Amino acid sequence: MQQKLNEIRELAIKAINDSKDLKKLDEVRVSILGKKGELTKVLRGMKDLTNEERPVIGKLANEVRSKIENELEKVKEIISKKQREIQLAKEVIDVTLPGKKKELGYRHPMTIVLDDIKDIFIGMGYSIAEGPEIENAYYNFDALNIPEEHPAKDEQDTFYINEEMMLRTSTSPVQVHVMENQKPPIRIIAPGRVFRSDEVDATHSPVFHQIEGLVIDKGITMGDLKGALEVFIKELYGETVEVKFRPHFFPFTEPSAEVDVSCVICGGKGHVNKETCKVCKGTGWIEILGCGMVHPNVLEMSGIDSTVYSGFAFGMGLERITMLRYGIKDLRMFYENDIRFLKQF
Ligand code: DAH
After folding, report:
1. Please, how many CA atoms are within 13 Å of residue 158, restricted to the half-sphere of its CB?
2. Domain range holding 28?
3. Which of 53, 94, 137, 318 could form a disulfide with 49 if both were Cys (CB 3.0 to 4.6 A apart)?
4. Cα 200 to averaged position of ligand 1 atoms, centre (Å)
Protein backbone atom coordinates (compact mmCIF):
# COMPACT_ATOMS: atom_id res chain seq x y z
CA MET A 1 0.00 0.00 0.00
CA GLN A 2 2.86 2.28 0.82
CA GLN A 3 4.27 1.66 -2.60
CA LYS A 4 0.89 2.29 -4.23
CA LEU A 5 0.65 5.64 -2.45
CA ASN A 6 4.15 6.65 -3.57
CA GLU A 7 3.27 5.65 -7.10
CA ILE A 8 0.10 7.73 -7.03
CA ARG A 9 2.09 10.70 -5.79
CA GLU A 10 4.71 10.40 -8.53
CA LEU A 11 2.13 9.93 -11.30
CA ALA A 12 -0.03 12.74 -9.92
CA ILE A 13 2.83 15.22 -9.76
CA LYS A 14 3.82 14.37 -13.30
CA ALA A 15 0.23 14.66 -14.62
CA ILE A 16 -0.22 17.95 -12.79
CA ASN A 17 2.94 19.41 -14.25
CA ASP A 18 2.05 18.17 -17.72
CA SER A 19 -1.28 20.03 -17.62
CA LYS A 20 -1.35 22.84 -20.16
CA ASP A 21 -4.52 24.60 -19.03
CA LEU A 22 -6.90 24.88 -16.12
CA LYS A 23 -9.43 22.48 -17.64
CA LYS A 24 -6.86 19.73 -18.01
CA LEU A 25 -5.59 20.46 -14.50
CA ASP A 26 -9.07 20.03 -13.06
CA GLU A 27 -9.48 16.72 -14.88
CA VAL A 28 -6.26 15.54 -13.24
CA ARG A 29 -7.55 16.68 -9.82
CA VAL A 30 -10.81 14.75 -10.27
CA SER A 31 -9.01 11.62 -11.43
CA ILE A 32 -6.95 11.56 -8.22
CA LEU A 33 -8.90 13.30 -5.48
CA GLY A 34 -12.45 12.98 -6.87
CA LYS A 35 -15.04 10.54 -5.54
CA LYS A 36 -13.75 7.83 -7.85
CA GLY A 37 -10.17 9.14 -7.84
CA GLU A 38 -7.07 7.00 -7.41
CA LEU A 39 -6.18 8.30 -3.97
CA THR A 40 -9.78 8.15 -2.75
CA LYS A 41 -9.92 4.50 -3.73
CA VAL A 42 -6.78 3.75 -1.72
CA LEU A 43 -8.10 5.61 1.31
CA ARG A 44 -11.28 3.57 1.18
CA GLY A 45 -9.15 0.42 1.47
CA MET A 46 -7.73 1.67 4.81
CA LYS A 47 -10.48 -0.08 6.80
CA ASP A 48 -8.94 -3.44 5.84
CA LEU A 49 -5.58 -2.58 7.37
CA THR A 50 -4.34 -3.84 10.69
CA ASN A 51 -4.33 -1.52 13.72
CA GLU A 52 -0.55 -1.20 13.46
CA GLU A 53 -0.48 -0.38 9.81
CA ARG A 54 -3.39 2.09 9.83
CA PRO A 55 -1.67 5.09 11.53
CA VAL A 56 1.44 4.68 9.43
CA ILE A 57 -0.40 4.44 6.13
CA GLY A 58 -2.86 7.10 7.28
CA LYS A 59 -0.02 9.53 7.89
CA LEU A 60 1.55 8.78 4.54
CA ALA A 61 -1.79 9.09 2.75
CA ASN A 62 -2.34 12.51 4.31
CA GLU A 63 1.13 13.61 3.28
CA VAL A 64 0.57 12.40 -0.26
CA ARG A 65 -2.81 14.15 -0.38
CA SER A 66 -1.44 17.46 0.83
CA LYS A 67 1.58 17.16 -1.44
CA ILE A 68 -0.78 16.68 -4.41
CA GLU A 69 -3.02 19.49 -3.27
CA ASN A 70 -0.07 21.87 -2.95
CA GLU A 71 1.20 20.87 -6.35
CA LEU A 72 -2.25 21.44 -7.86
CA GLU A 73 -2.38 24.88 -6.26
CA LYS A 74 1.13 25.77 -7.44
CA VAL A 75 0.54 24.71 -11.04
CA LYS A 76 -2.86 26.40 -11.06
CA GLU A 77 -1.14 29.67 -10.14
CA ILE A 78 1.47 29.23 -12.86
CA ILE A 79 -1.11 28.46 -15.56
CA SER A 80 -3.36 31.38 -14.48
CA LYS A 81 -0.44 33.76 -14.55
CA LYS A 82 0.61 32.61 -17.99
CA GLN A 83 -2.93 32.96 -19.33
CA ARG A 84 -3.16 36.47 -17.88
CA GLU A 85 0.08 37.42 -19.58
CA ILE A 86 -1.10 36.08 -22.94
CA GLN A 87 -4.40 37.95 -22.52
CA LEU A 88 -2.61 41.20 -21.62
CA ALA A 89 -0.24 40.87 -24.55
CA LYS A 90 -3.25 40.44 -26.83
CA GLU A 91 -5.04 43.47 -25.40
CA VAL A 92 -2.08 45.76 -25.47
CA ILE A 93 -3.00 49.32 -26.48
CA ASP A 94 -0.56 51.48 -28.36
CA VAL A 95 -1.37 54.90 -26.99
CA THR A 96 0.85 56.52 -29.61
CA LEU A 97 -1.42 55.38 -32.48
CA PRO A 98 -3.59 58.15 -33.96
CA GLY A 99 -7.26 57.99 -32.92
CA LYS A 100 -10.14 57.08 -35.22
CA LYS A 101 -11.31 60.27 -36.90
CA LYS A 102 -15.00 61.10 -36.54
CA GLU A 103 -16.49 62.31 -39.83
CA LEU A 104 -18.08 65.70 -39.35
CA GLY A 105 -21.25 66.44 -41.29
CA TYR A 106 -21.33 69.11 -43.98
CA ARG A 107 -23.78 71.89 -44.61
CA HIS A 108 -25.80 71.24 -47.75
CA PRO A 109 -24.87 73.74 -50.50
CA MET A 110 -28.43 75.06 -50.53
CA THR A 111 -28.28 75.57 -46.77
CA ILE A 112 -25.02 77.50 -47.18
CA VAL A 113 -26.55 79.79 -49.80
CA LEU A 114 -29.81 80.19 -47.86
CA ASP A 115 -27.85 81.11 -44.71
CA ASP A 116 -25.95 83.72 -46.75
CA ILE A 117 -29.19 85.12 -48.18
CA LYS A 118 -30.76 85.31 -44.72
CA ASP A 119 -27.67 87.10 -43.38
CA ILE A 120 -27.83 89.68 -46.18
CA PHE A 121 -31.51 90.48 -45.64
CA ILE A 122 -31.27 90.40 -41.84
CA GLY A 123 -28.45 92.92 -42.28
CA MET A 124 -30.92 95.15 -44.14
CA GLY A 125 -33.47 94.95 -41.33
CA TYR A 126 -35.66 92.12 -42.63
CA SER A 127 -36.95 89.32 -40.44
CA ILE A 128 -37.68 85.70 -41.41
CA ALA A 129 -41.32 84.61 -41.88
CA GLU A 130 -42.85 81.19 -42.44
CA GLY A 131 -46.12 79.91 -43.79
CA PRO A 132 -47.88 76.56 -44.22
CA GLU A 133 -46.97 74.21 -47.08
CA ILE A 134 -50.64 73.27 -47.47
CA GLU A 135 -52.88 76.12 -48.58
CA ASN A 136 -56.38 76.64 -49.82
CA ALA A 137 -57.29 78.40 -53.06
CA TYR A 138 -57.74 81.71 -51.28
CA TYR A 139 -54.13 81.96 -50.08
CA ASN A 140 -52.50 80.21 -53.04
CA PHE A 141 -54.39 82.10 -55.77
CA ASP A 142 -57.27 84.44 -54.94
CA ALA A 143 -55.59 86.66 -52.35
CA LEU A 144 -52.69 87.03 -54.77
CA ASN A 145 -55.02 88.54 -57.34
CA ILE A 146 -54.88 85.43 -59.52
CA PRO A 147 -58.42 85.34 -60.95
CA GLU A 148 -60.50 82.18 -61.33
CA GLU A 149 -59.88 81.84 -65.05
CA HIS A 150 -56.28 83.01 -65.06
CA PRO A 151 -53.88 80.75 -66.96
CA ALA A 152 -51.44 80.94 -64.04
CA LYS A 153 -53.66 78.42 -62.28
CA ASP A 154 -53.06 75.82 -64.97
CA GLU A 155 -49.53 76.93 -65.64
CA GLN A 156 -48.62 76.23 -62.05
CA ASP A 157 -49.68 72.61 -62.37
CA THR A 158 -50.83 72.22 -58.84
CA PHE A 159 -50.83 69.19 -56.50
CA TYR A 160 -54.37 69.25 -55.13
CA ILE A 161 -55.11 67.40 -51.89
CA ASN A 162 -58.86 67.79 -52.36
CA GLU A 163 -61.14 70.35 -54.05
CA GLU A 164 -60.18 73.05 -51.62
CA MET A 165 -56.67 72.24 -50.34
CA MET A 166 -53.40 72.05 -52.25
CA LEU A 167 -49.64 72.07 -51.78
CA ARG A 168 -48.52 75.67 -52.21
CA THR A 169 -47.11 76.38 -55.67
CA SER A 170 -44.94 79.27 -54.51
CA THR A 171 -43.96 81.07 -51.32
CA SER A 172 -46.11 84.08 -52.32
CA PRO A 173 -49.04 82.99 -50.07
CA VAL A 174 -46.77 83.76 -47.10
CA GLN A 175 -47.15 87.42 -48.11
CA VAL A 176 -50.87 87.12 -47.40
CA HIS A 177 -50.40 85.46 -43.99
CA VAL A 178 -47.90 88.13 -42.99
CA MET A 179 -50.12 91.02 -44.10
CA GLU A 180 -53.07 89.51 -42.21
CA ASN A 181 -51.06 89.15 -39.02
CA GLN A 182 -48.68 92.12 -38.97
CA LYS A 183 -49.21 95.83 -39.29
CA PRO A 184 -46.88 97.82 -41.57
CA PRO A 185 -44.06 98.58 -41.63
CA ILE A 186 -43.40 95.03 -42.87
CA ARG A 187 -40.01 93.79 -44.00
CA ILE A 188 -39.71 90.00 -44.31
CA ILE A 189 -38.24 87.22 -46.34
CA ALA A 190 -39.93 83.81 -46.32
CA PRO A 191 -37.86 80.83 -47.43
CA GLY A 192 -39.66 77.52 -47.90
CA ARG A 193 -40.54 74.43 -49.83
CA VAL A 194 -42.93 74.66 -52.79
CA PHE A 195 -44.56 72.07 -55.03
CA ARG A 196 -45.47 71.75 -58.69
CA SER A 197 -46.25 68.62 -60.63
CA ASP A 198 -43.28 68.99 -62.94
CA GLU A 199 -41.31 66.14 -64.43
CA VAL A 200 -37.87 65.70 -62.89
CA ASP A 201 -35.00 66.83 -65.10
CA ALA A 202 -31.74 68.78 -64.76
CA THR A 203 -33.58 72.01 -63.93
CA HIS A 204 -36.97 70.83 -62.57
CA SER A 205 -38.13 69.06 -59.47
CA PRO A 206 -41.71 68.67 -58.18
CA VAL A 207 -40.43 69.82 -54.79
CA PHE A 208 -38.16 72.83 -54.72
CA HIS A 209 -37.45 75.93 -52.66
CA GLN A 210 -38.22 79.61 -52.99
CA ILE A 211 -37.44 82.72 -51.04
CA GLU A 212 -40.19 85.31 -50.96
CA GLY A 213 -39.66 88.93 -49.99
CA LEU A 214 -42.16 91.56 -48.90
CA VAL A 215 -41.68 95.18 -47.86
CA ILE A 216 -44.63 97.44 -47.00
CA ASP A 217 -44.48 100.92 -45.58
CA LYS A 218 -45.56 104.47 -46.36
CA GLY A 219 -43.93 105.84 -49.49
CA ILE A 220 -42.22 102.68 -50.75
CA THR A 221 -41.33 103.07 -54.46
CA MET A 222 -39.82 101.11 -57.33
CA GLY A 223 -36.57 102.88 -56.41
CA ASP A 224 -36.57 101.10 -53.05
CA LEU A 225 -37.21 97.80 -54.82
CA LYS A 226 -34.30 98.32 -57.21
CA GLY A 227 -31.96 99.48 -54.48
CA ALA A 228 -32.72 96.59 -52.12
CA LEU A 229 -32.38 93.93 -54.81
CA GLU A 230 -29.20 95.42 -56.28
CA VAL A 231 -27.55 95.46 -52.85
CA PHE A 232 -28.68 91.88 -52.27
CA ILE A 233 -27.44 90.57 -55.62
CA LYS A 234 -24.05 92.27 -55.35
CA GLU A 235 -23.61 90.92 -51.82
CA LEU A 236 -24.46 87.43 -53.08
CA TYR A 237 -22.56 87.30 -56.39
CA GLY A 238 -19.95 90.05 -55.94
CA GLU A 239 -19.64 93.74 -56.78
CA THR A 240 -18.76 93.21 -60.43
CA VAL A 241 -22.01 91.47 -61.35
CA GLU A 242 -24.40 93.59 -63.43
CA VAL A 243 -28.13 93.75 -62.65
CA LYS A 244 -30.92 94.38 -65.16
CA PHE A 245 -34.64 94.92 -64.52
CA ARG A 246 -36.82 93.73 -67.38
CA PRO A 247 -40.58 94.46 -67.54
CA HIS A 248 -42.74 91.39 -66.94
CA PHE A 249 -46.20 90.44 -65.72
CA PHE A 250 -47.29 88.94 -62.41
CA PRO A 251 -50.90 89.19 -61.21
CA PHE A 252 -49.85 90.15 -57.66
CA THR A 253 -47.55 93.03 -58.60
CA GLU A 254 -47.94 96.10 -60.79
CA PRO A 255 -45.64 97.10 -62.32
CA SER A 256 -43.71 93.80 -62.38
CA ALA A 257 -40.23 92.93 -63.49
CA GLU A 258 -37.85 90.05 -63.88
CA VAL A 259 -34.29 90.58 -62.75
CA ASP A 260 -31.35 89.35 -64.78
CA VAL A 261 -27.73 89.22 -63.67
CA SER A 262 -24.73 89.20 -65.96
CA CYS A 263 -23.84 85.54 -66.43
CA VAL A 264 -21.70 84.36 -63.53
CA ILE A 265 -20.17 81.63 -65.71
CA CYS A 266 -18.98 83.64 -68.77
CA GLY A 267 -18.87 87.03 -67.04
CA GLY A 268 -21.59 88.39 -69.36
CA LYS A 269 -19.58 87.80 -72.53
CA GLY A 270 -21.88 85.07 -73.80
CA HIS A 271 -19.03 82.74 -74.65
CA VAL A 272 -16.37 80.67 -72.92
CA ASN A 273 -13.19 79.94 -74.95
CA LYS A 274 -14.97 80.95 -78.19
CA GLU A 275 -17.80 78.48 -77.40
CA THR A 276 -21.31 79.72 -76.71
CA CYS A 277 -21.85 79.80 -72.94
CA LYS A 278 -24.20 76.94 -72.06
CA VAL A 279 -25.54 78.58 -68.91
CA CYS A 280 -26.77 81.89 -70.43
CA LYS A 281 -27.10 80.38 -73.93
CA GLY A 282 -24.91 83.14 -75.33
CA THR A 283 -27.08 86.01 -74.11
CA GLY A 284 -24.73 87.05 -71.31
CA TRP A 285 -27.69 87.34 -68.91
CA ILE A 286 -29.41 84.99 -66.50
CA GLU A 287 -32.84 85.51 -64.99
CA ILE A 288 -32.78 85.04 -61.23
CA LEU A 289 -35.96 86.46 -59.76
CA GLY A 290 -39.38 88.02 -60.22
CA CYS A 291 -40.50 91.17 -58.44
CA GLY A 292 -42.75 94.19 -58.54
CA MET A 293 -44.80 96.72 -56.61
CA VAL A 294 -47.48 94.92 -54.60
CA HIS A 295 -50.80 95.23 -56.46
CA PRO A 296 -53.30 97.48 -54.59
CA ASN A 297 -55.86 94.65 -54.78
CA VAL A 298 -53.47 92.38 -52.88
CA LEU A 299 -52.94 95.01 -50.18
CA GLU A 300 -56.67 95.71 -49.83
CA MET A 301 -57.68 92.01 -49.69
CA SER A 302 -55.34 91.55 -46.73
CA GLY A 303 -56.66 94.62 -44.95
CA ILE A 304 -53.93 97.13 -45.80
CA ASP A 305 -55.05 100.58 -46.98
CA SER A 306 -53.48 101.00 -50.41
CA THR A 307 -54.00 104.77 -50.33
CA VAL A 308 -51.69 104.99 -47.29
CA TYR A 309 -49.25 102.13 -47.85
CA SER A 310 -47.31 100.75 -50.76
CA GLY A 311 -44.78 98.00 -51.03
CA PHE A 312 -42.70 95.69 -53.14
CA ALA A 313 -42.35 91.92 -53.33
CA PHE A 314 -39.97 89.48 -54.90
CA GLY A 315 -39.56 85.75 -55.29
CA MET A 316 -36.61 83.60 -56.28
CA GLY A 317 -35.69 79.93 -56.59
CA LEU A 318 -33.05 78.70 -54.17
CA GLU A 319 -31.96 75.73 -56.34
CA ARG A 320 -31.27 78.00 -59.29
CA ILE A 321 -29.37 80.58 -57.24
CA THR A 322 -27.25 77.83 -55.66
CA MET A 323 -26.54 76.19 -59.03
CA LEU A 324 -25.29 79.50 -60.41
CA ARG A 325 -23.19 80.22 -57.36
CA TYR A 326 -21.29 76.92 -57.58
CA GLY A 327 -21.63 76.11 -61.28
CA ILE A 328 -23.77 73.01 -60.57
CA LYS A 329 -25.34 71.76 -63.79
CA ASP A 330 -27.94 69.29 -62.55
CA LEU A 331 -30.38 70.07 -59.77
CA ARG A 332 -30.91 66.39 -58.99
CA MET A 333 -27.52 66.34 -57.25
CA PHE A 334 -29.06 68.42 -54.45
CA TYR A 335 -31.42 65.63 -53.46
CA GLU A 336 -29.34 62.50 -54.06
CA ASN A 337 -27.31 62.92 -50.87
CA ASP A 338 -24.14 61.58 -52.45
CA ILE A 339 -21.51 62.32 -49.86
CA ARG A 340 -18.86 62.90 -52.58
CA PHE A 341 -20.96 65.78 -53.88
CA LEU A 342 -21.95 67.17 -50.50
CA LYS A 343 -18.47 67.28 -49.01
CA GLN A 344 -17.19 69.69 -51.67
CA PHE A 345 -18.82 72.80 -50.24
N1 DAH B 1 -44.46 83.65 -57.22
C2 DAH B 1 -43.63 83.78 -58.37
C3 DAH B 1 -43.30 82.41 -58.93
O4 DAH B 1 -43.48 81.44 -58.23
C5 DAH B 1 -42.35 84.49 -58.05
C6 DAH B 1 -42.59 85.93 -57.71
C7 DAH B 1 -42.62 86.87 -58.72
C8 DAH B 1 -42.84 86.32 -56.41
C9 DAH B 1 -42.85 88.19 -58.43
C10 DAH B 1 -43.08 87.65 -56.11
C11 DAH B 1 -43.07 88.58 -57.14
O12 DAH B 1 -43.29 88.09 -54.87
O13 DAH B 1 -43.31 89.89 -56.85
O14 DAH B 1 -42.86 82.29 -60.02
Report:
1. 22
2. 2-90
3. 53
4. 21
* pLDDT over 80 (residue 153): no
Same domain, 316 and 173: yes
114 CB contacts (<8 Å, ≥6 apart)? 191, 209, 211, 318
Parallel, antiparallel or unpaired: strands 285-294 and 275-276: unpaired
Same domain, 215 and 186: yes
255 cis-preceded (ω within 30 degrees of 0): yes
What are 218-223's contacts with CB under 8 Å, separation 24+?
218/184, 218/185, 218/308, 218/309, 218/310, 219/310, 220/293, 220/309, 220/310, 220/311, 220/312, 221/293, 221/310, 222/255, 222/293, 222/312
| Claim to verify: residue 86 and residue 121 sit in the same structural domain | no
Give the three-class secondary structure for 9.
Answer: helix
Confidence at residue 187, expressed as pLDDT on a 0 to 100 scale? 98
Domain check: are 234 and 322 in the same one?
A: yes
Together in a domain, 178 and 290: yes
pLDDT given for residue 154 in this prediction: 63
State whether the beta carbon of 188 lies less than 6 angstroms from ligand 1: no
* Coil vs helix vs strand at 126: coil
Instruction: Confirm or reject: Cβ of 294 under 6 Å from ligand 1.
Output: no
Q: Identify whether residues 209 and 290 lie together within a single domain.
A: yes
184 within ligand 1 shell (Cβ under 6 A): no
Q: Evaluate whether residue 103 is within a structural domain.
A: no
Q: Which atom of ligand 1 is nearest to the CA of 213?
A: 12
Q: Give the containing element (helix H, strand E) for 257.
A: strand 253-262
Residues 61 and 200 in one domain: no
Rounded to two decimals, the pTM is 0.73
Whether the predicted pLDDT of 149 surpasses 60: yes
- State whether residue 36 is helix, strand or coil: coil
**Cis omega (within 30 of 0) on the bond before 185?**
yes
How many angstroms does the Cα of residue 284 sit away from the middle of ligand 1?
23
CB atoms within 10 A of CB 235: 16
Rounded to the nearest 10 degrees, the angle between the axes of helix 318-326 and helix 222-237 is: 40
The predicted pLDDT at position 65 comes to: 84
> Which residues are CB-contacts of 306 (< 8 A; sequence separation ≥ 6)?
296, 299, 300
